[in-house]
Amino acid sequence: MAESVKKVRAWLARHADDFSPEEWQSRLAPDIGRPRKLPPLALPRSGSDLIQPLISAGVDPELAAELGDAVTREQASAYFANIENFIGTVKLPVGLAGPLRMRGSAAQGDYVVPLATHEAALVASYHRGTLAISEAGGCTAAVLNEGVSRVPCFVFANLREAAAFLAWAVPLEDEFRRVAEATTRHGKLSELKLTVEGGNVYLHC
Fold first, then answer.
1. Residues 106-111: contacts with CB within 8 Å, 24+ apart?
2. Cis peptide before 53 (omega within 30 of 0)
3. Are 165 and 154 in contact (CB under 8 A)?
4. SS3 readout for the chain
5. Under a CB-based contact definition with an 8 Å cutoff, are residues 194 and 201 in contact?
6. Which residues pair with 154 in a beta bridge?
7. Which conformational region is residue 98 in: left (phi greater than 0), alpha (psi within -120 to 50 degrees), or beta?
């Protein structure tokens, strides 16, 4: 995100004595050589097996018991099917905002919105917004399309190279579709869109 020069200078002043410029460069340099894998943790395979692997890996027993509480152990089969490397659940404060008046193609009525967050004043801000929207007649919404988008980026030295890539890629949409759909039985490539910015080409799949 963008930050003001004033704040950057203040940060640099606070940390000027921490490291030399060379040490900063060393600390912030890419670390490519290390293996990219989970630590040696025997991941649980059932709800009854949630806590002990965490304790064996050095997790504080109280924290392990919170991650694998009784409700989580009882519902573990649902979690195992929907999250990778599952080790438990955490609790978050939940506040209510609303009611929010909806005038949509599906939803019609006033809805209370639960928000789980640790951020102070967030629920109050949303609550004021929902009331303002509702007093103005409600929020109008209609679903025009459902899907998941993936946007790989291809970087080129100039627009001429980007144009050459487009000339090659666009006629291959059917081939992209065949390759993409060969990787999963749960999705299909329905559309291919292109965005060109400078020498960058984004394929919206």
1. 106/143, 107/141, 110/134
2. no
3. yes
4. CCCCHHHHHHHHHHCCCCCCHHHHHHHHCCCCCCCCCCCCCCCCCCHHHCHHHHHHCCCCHHHHHHHCCHHHHHCHHHHHCCCCCCCCCCCCCEEEEEEEEEEECCCEEEEEEEEECCCCCHHHHHHHHHHHHHHCCCEEECCCCCCCCCCCEEECCCHHHHHHHHHHHHHHHHHHHHHHHCCCCCCCCCCCEEEEECCEEEEEC
5. yes
6. 201
7. left
Residue 116 and residue 49: Cα distance in Å, rounded?
27
C-alpha 1 chain-centroid distance: 16
pLDDT (tens digit, 9 = 90+) per residue, 95-135? 999 899 988 877 889 999 999 999 989 999 999 999 999 99
How far is 9 from 130, CA to CA, in rounded Å? 39
Model confidence pLDDT, tens digit, residues 152-189 = 788 888 878 888 888 888 888 888 888 888 888 877 77
For residue 72, pLDDT over 60 is answered with yes
Q: Which amino acid is at 59?
A: V
Cβ–Cβ under 8 Å, residues 131 and 123: no
Domain residue spans of the chain = 94-141, 153-204
